[in-house]
Amino acid sequence: KEPYYATPDDDLYAVPAKGGEIRRVVSIDGPIGDFGLSPDGRRVAFVGFMNPKPDRSHNETDLFVSGAAPGAEARNLTASYDYDVVEGLAGDQHAPRAGRPQPIVWSGDGRSLFVITGERGRVNLKRIDASAGAVAPVTQGDQEVVSYTATPDGSRMAVVVSTPTVINDLYVLDTATGRMSPLARPNQELFSQLDLTPPEEITYKSFDGKEIQAFVQRPPGFDAKKKYPLILNIHGGPHAAYGYVFFHEMQWMAARGYVVLYPNPRGSSTFGQEFGNVIQYEFPGDDAKDLLAGVDEMVKRGSIDPKRLGVTGGSGGGILTNWIITQTDRFAAAAAQRSIADWMSFWYTADFTLFRRTWFRGAPWEDPQDFARRSPITHVAKVTTPLMLIEGEEDYRTPPGAGGEMMFRALKYLKKPVVMVRFPGESHDLSRQGKPWHRVERLRHLVAWFDKYLLGKKIDTYDVP
Questions:
Q1: Positions marked catalytic
Q2: pTM here?
């Protein structure tokens, strides 16, 4: 009756087609996501995870197989595969949440299963042995298999694929050979008129020697002999990942003359369970240091003007933006989107409960020092960076009152340069699924703010009369 007190737990039930008693067929101590019945109906494969003890903030999903009869034991096929099963990438050109099929597909002989997995910023289809759990690639490459459906025997699939320079082309896939034949390329005519370039993937060492992956999107016609302004763009989640998928925001910023750095700091998904969960109870913290080490790396490699650095991010990236400008004054401008300023206020007002010890060790009154030390608002007096705050007025995930409103009022009180752009009727998904004109306006505000402070353009939109 009050599930928010308990660990997540789903069971799978069977209902007679003609009506009758409902019976439980699969039960694990954990959630069950997508599932698929074997061709003979005797087994069921599903995605989920076993609840850990103690709680974690990031749980890597696995593929399980169970008999489709009451009392059958579920086996974890991917326990030794340290990547995320049925995991996508952060992007701004996906269908709305739950709007893209990613089914669990059985082969016709019942010996194999087909699923997507996320590995280091790439998402491809894998064939997983239904008995031994051996994982083999079906598709490969620097891409995201966004969604797919299969023929009843699993021999062919319709597959939607995105890359940094392609939005959601449709292919027919032969699962036996991995060969993909193009079926529809709806944006080919438009893209033939544009100068789109793929990002460069780089790796660098963070402050403690941990290897961090990042992507660098450069402007069209990039000249290595010149010095460019750089925008550090931080993903949300924080358990999410950037990767090889079309990201309009990065291309837009690069087209306006910026080098865009978008890293996967510790806490990101698609890099294994330990890497994803290492920030539990320490967010923001070492992940911010990973991001700053990436900026150092770009400056060291040349072509970046260290006096023209900007930082932005949304959700988890929004709080990291707020946090970073309380820790350093090296950025000439910042834009925090759908952010958090005060963890205590977030705990009380977010649209999901935090009654379990996943993100925090206790309630705000039990350990107020912990909530305060990780809250940007605690350190707001140190901010010197001009800050733009972008909020959706119907954002219940990171309520404006716990984020942008706080930062705005505090910085206004301190007479620091700050503006807030509020979008009526928009939710936490403004940048991905907001009204088209709002999405355009958001990007224009973002780049105009950086143009003003990084390029020195005369833009009086944000000046106080």
A1: 315, 428
A2: 0.95
